[in-house]
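Usage

Read records sequentially. Each one opens with the input sequence:
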Amino acid sequence: RQGIDKAVTVALDELAAISKEVSSKEEIAQVGAISAADEEIGQFISEAMEKVGNDGVITIEESKGFKTELEVVEGMQFDRGYASPYMVT
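and closes with the structure output:
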């Protein structure tokens, strides 16, 4: 167990040493395009990040159509209903 903990610490330290902060819209688009293997998706990711900011949430859903689109939802959104209908006031 101690060996695993030490290895995790070494791995995290190495990742921190070689990591690079990504902040510009172009850099975010590059990372998104590489991750998705699609330049258009990279642009969508960059636009979504720009609109929601660092504290926003990005949700990706499968579409029934052929078009890729970006939709911004303001406020709070719940992906599940209430545990009980009595909680709704």
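Summary fields computed downstream for this record:
- Residues 22-87 form one domain.
- The chain has one domain: 22-87.
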